[in-house]
From TrEMBL:
Superkingdom of the source species: Bacteria
Domain Fe/B12 periplasmic-binding: 39-130
Matches recorded under InterPro entries: ABC_transptr_periplasmic_BD (IPR002491)
Matches recorded under PROSITE patterns: FE_B12_PBP
Protein name: Fe/B12 periplasmic-binding domain-containing protein
Length: 130
């Protein structure tokens, strides 16, 4: 079977992914994780639908772009994943993040375009000082 919505299948996939890993982000920086990513905040408009399609769930998505929220409220994705209609927004349609809101969600990872310029990326350069 290529896919299933069986919860046993979801747990088996998650259980197999417990090792740490490292990625190289769009800026060329290495980012390491000790284990699976459980909470995701993403300002990139299509990524919540891709994450939910892979997971067969909206459970790990903690924050989204305002444009995504509006689409979820009136679209098929919102019908398939009703909880997506109430997800906290972390960025406007211009992708400029609301860092304080994002950090309050305690995400394991924040997904943002790395090539959108200083207005979008500068707020993330020193979030620990906030």
């Amino acid at each position: 079977m290529c896919s299933t919505s069986d919860s046993h299948h979801r747990h088996a996939v998650g259980a197999a992914s417990t090792a740490g890993f490292t990625i190289v982000d769009q800026r060329g920086k290495r980012v390491s994780f000790d284990g699976p990513v459980e909470r995701i905040a993403t300002a990139i408009i299509p990524s919540p639908s891709m994450i939910a399609a892979v997971d067969d769930s909206h459970d790990r998505i903690a924050g989204i772009n305002e444009s995504t929220l509006q689409a979820n409220k009136g679209g098929v994705f919102g019908t398939l994943f009703p909880e997506s209609r109430k997800t906290t927004t972390i960025a406007g349609a211009d992708f400029v993040p609301t860092v304080e809101t994002t950090l309050s969600l305690e995400p394991d990872v924040v997904i943002q375009w790395g090539d959108m310029g200083d207005e979008v990326n500068a707020p993330w350069q020193a979030p620990a000082s906030r």
